[in-house]
Specification:
There is one protein chain. This protein has 643 residues and is of the alpha+beta class. It is 19% helix and 31% strand. The chain contains 9 helices and 35 strands. Helix 7 links the parallel strand 24 and strand 25. Helix 4 crosses helix 9 and helix 7 packs parallel to helix 8.
């Protein structure tokens, strides 16, 4: 009798445990209040619920129904909708209901790449004025957080749609915003920007395993992760040797655990460092965490009677700054903002004063890293320069770190691109290449074309528009012709125009020799918008700068024929020789003198009797390049053989 009761009980428990789990209705994180959905194409919305559950979608009093599969996944296809709104969407199952308001249909663009795409509007040229005048809530951005995955991820970490306004637009991608501003104006439709970018990222992390020639990510990452584990152990041993004891933590510190801002502390195991570059460049590679900087400065009796402003330049990423143990300022996650803090005379002393800066960096470069700026304390009548050589000590090592995830193949694609593959969009805006400048033209060119084709395959659209930015000028301009790495990447970017429905915005003329992040993002966004108007919206506009068709040698003068050359001119009548260079069969280049004739550029170069190759704007920073067309678009850099 008891055995039978026990047997029945076991059967009942087993049957309960075998029932499908009852789950709440969820939807992909890319969807939400204020979102922009792509107009005039079939759309998909997806998510999860209980296995074999019924999911109902409602829009404009029309509904559609679908059933989840055995794993609880569902997807609903929406009929094409015209531009406009606002709309309300609802999704419901037997257990719960999800609803969104203020939804518009318009054109959606994926903005991706590295820091020049990620760069926020608030840190650009004339930002304050632009932000104060923003009045277009139908420009909206969905910022995808920096995350990575070793395997194809089912969903994003998080996402939310934000309407452009004076209090919000400062955080938008500046390039994307200025692009959206122009397209919204010319097309009269809402514009959605999906900002999936990561500063410092190489191109390989944005590509799928198959596009890189592997079966899956595991085939690529196994060796990389093993090497990373070994490197982390070696790094920890090295840090212990240099600094002695420190915290090794798996999440950021919420508050400081030491009081190294005090004036008189033991300086054993403090190490020397210069403050004009990231600590990685000073021998502390792959270090993420909290590092303290210390130095001293001297003041006279006269000087301590005044208030000062302390200038520390940019600090990557966050800081708390102290003088004589008193906090004078600090910023969080502001890696390119110059620090200027007010120092009250009441905390200053005659003679020795101590400055301590607690710097936190969670990934990539870190430290007090300003170059070419006078750092120090300034009053109405005095300037006290800070020394270049400081001391540092490690408070905490972030063992979790991103560990340069933006350099690891496939991991950004897996987490920041793949999960949104079913989200319909009008096109892609791409700005990347600086981190791959160590590669040659062919290598980067193959990768770049591979990425374009890879994403088109993912979105099942062989002609998905792909508009991108050619690298801007950077670093010192050369006095003589030389081989440079950035022009090779620029040429690889030009080569990608061989693919259908691609467009390249040239940015040679808006670079900054001292800053890899030129602040003029308005011109970049507007040039991308010109490309979109021409290639996507089929407007009759000039969208490309002069690009060479062929070069002929006529009576020892080189005649360069250009396409898109209507109204060809040299800006400010600049006929500097440091624009074009010419080489003979020995491969040595010499500057050539340019002039215009009958809509062509004509070059002469007395040093080369039988020229075989010509280059234009062939330098990391071609500061004298001045050739434009009637649309005000700069000529593209090139290297080309003489026919």
């Amino acid at each position: 009798m008891y055995k039978n009761i026990l047997f029945v009980a076991v059967l009942l428990i087993s049957s309960v445990n075998c029932r499908p789990s009852i789950a709440q209705l969820t939807v992909g994180k890319i969807f939400g209040e204020h979102m922009i959905l792509q107009r005039e194409v079939p759309l998909r919305i997806w998510g999860t619920s209980s296995p074999n559950d019924i999911v109902i979608f409602e829009l404009n009093k029309k509904s559609k129904t679908t059933k989840t599969d055995g794993d609880g996944n569902w997807i609903i296809e929406i009929d094409p909708q015209p531009a406009g709104g606002p709309h309300e969407l609802t999704l419901s199952s037997a257990r719960n209901k999800i609803g969104w308001k203020d939804i518009y249909f318009g054109d959606v663009y994926l903005c991706s790449g590295q820091s020049n795409m990620e760069w926020p509007l608030e840190l650009t040229e004339n930002a304050e004025q632009e932000i104060s005048q923003v009045n277009n809530p139908l420009i909206r951005e969905c910022k995808i957080p920096r995350t990575s995955s070793d395997v194809l991820a089912k969903d994003l970490e998080s996402a939310s749609w934000i309407k452009a306004g004076p209090k919000t637009v400062g955080k938008f991608t500046a390039v994307g915003y200025y692009f959206a501003k122009e397209i919204s104006k010319s097309e009269g439709v809402p514009i959605g920007l999906i900002n999936s970018s990561w500063g410092g990222s190489r191109i390989e992390p944005w590509m799928s395993a198959t596009s890189l020639g592997a079966i899956n990510s595991e085939a690529i990452l196994t060796e990389i992760r093993e090497k990373e584990a070994q490197d982390k152990m070696a790094l920890k041993r090295d840090l212990l040797t240099k600094f002695g004891a420190f915290k090794s933590v798996d999440k950021p510190l919420t508050e400081k655990s030491v009081n190294w801002e005090k004036e008189n502390i033991e300086l054993a195991n403090w190490q020397p460092i210069k403050i004009n570059s990231n600590w990685e460049s000073e021998g502390y590679e792959k270090l993420d965490g909290v590092v303290w900087y210390r130095n001293t400065f001297l003041l006279t009796k006269k000087q301590v009677k005044e208030n000062f402003e302390l200038s520390l330049g940019a600090i990557d990423d966050s800081d708390e700054t102290f003088i004589n143990g008193v906090r004078v300022g600090g910023m969080k996650n502001s890696y390119n903002v110059k620090r200027k803090y007010q120092v009250e005379k009441s905390i200053l002393k005659v003679g020795r004063n101590v400055i301590a800066v607690r710097v936190e960096d969670t990934g990539g470069g870190g430290g007090i890293n300003e170059v070419g700026v006078d750092l120090g304390l300034k009053s109405s009548s005095h300037f006290i320069p800070l020394k270049e050589n400081w001391l540092i000590k490690l408070e905490a090592h972030y063992a979790f770190g991103n560990y340069n995830e933006n350099q690891v193949p496939t991991v950004l694609y897996n987490k920041m691109i793949y999960p949104i593959r079913n989200y319909a969009m009008k096109g892609v805006l791409w700005y990347q290449g600086e981190s791959n400048a160590d590669q040659d033209r062919a290598t980067y060119g193959n990768l770049f074309k591979g990425l374009i084709n890879d994403w088109r395959t993912l979105w099942k659209n062989d002609s998905l528009p792909f508009l991108y930015v050619q690298l801007a000028a950077f670093l010192e301009a050369p006095a003589e012709p030389e081989y440079s790495s950035w022009p090779a990447i620029r040429m690889a970017q030009t080569d990608a125009l061989e693919l259908e429905n691609t467009g390249m915005a040239t940015a040679l003329d808006i670079g900054d020799a001292m800053d890899i992040h030129p602040r003029n993002k308005k011109t970049v966004g507007e040039r991308l918008a010109l490309l979109a108007q021409h290639k996507i919206y089929k407007k009759d506009v000039i969208s490309r700068g002069p690009n060479p068709i062929r070069i002929r040698n006529v009576a020892n003068e080189l005649i360069i024929e250009y396409k898109d050359s209507e109204g060809l001119y040299f800006k400010d009548n600049n006929l500097s020789e440091r624009q074009f260079s010419v080489a003979g069969s020995n491969g040595k280049f010499y500057w050539a003198t340019p002039r215009l004739s009958k809509g062509h550029v004509v070059l002469t170069c007395s040093e080369v009797s039988n020229p075989v190759e010509v280059r234009y704007a062939w330098a990391n920073n071609p500061d004298q390049a001045s050739l434009y067309n009637a649309a005000g678009l700069p000529a593209e850099s090139f290297t080309m053989h003489v026919k």
